[in-house]
Amino acid sequence: MNFVRAEGLVKTTLSKYQRVCNRVEELAQERMIASLDCLDLRFMDAYQRMRSDEKAQKATRYYETTVIRQLIKFALSRGMLVQDQ
After folding, report:
1. DSSP character for 80?
2. For 22-45, how does the pLDDT look when each residue is reduced to its tens digit (9 = 90+)?
3. Phi-psi region of 56 (alpha: psi -120 to 50; beta: other; left: phi over 0)
4. What pTM did the predictor assign?
5. CA 13 from chain center: how many Å?
6. Which end of the chain is more exposed for a tag (fewer CB within 10 A), N or C?
7. Please, which pLDDT band fits residue 78 given cuts at 50, 70 and 90?
8. How far apart are CA 65 and CA 47, in angstroms?
9. For the residues of 16-67, what is the DSSP string, one character each?
């Protein structure tokens, strides 16, 4: 999140990103996932299902999965992940 803050994004965008990151972290803990490299398609399906069960709108779910994808791309570009799953 420090990188996102350094990009000078507005507070509402930062807040949205933070909420998505918090949800990802909660689901990862429930599924006993300890690192980004374990976020695979099954995790993304579970995230989508969780958000659907919480009655999140389709556009919101799309936006959130895009944010997660951006997080993964960022980690790949910085060498934090070896490969994209």
Report:
1. S
2. 999 999 999 999 888 888 899 999
3. beta
4. 0.78
5. 14
6. N
7. confident
8. 8
9. HHHHHHHHHHHHHHHTT--SGGG--HHHHHHHHHHHHHTT--HHHHHHHHHH
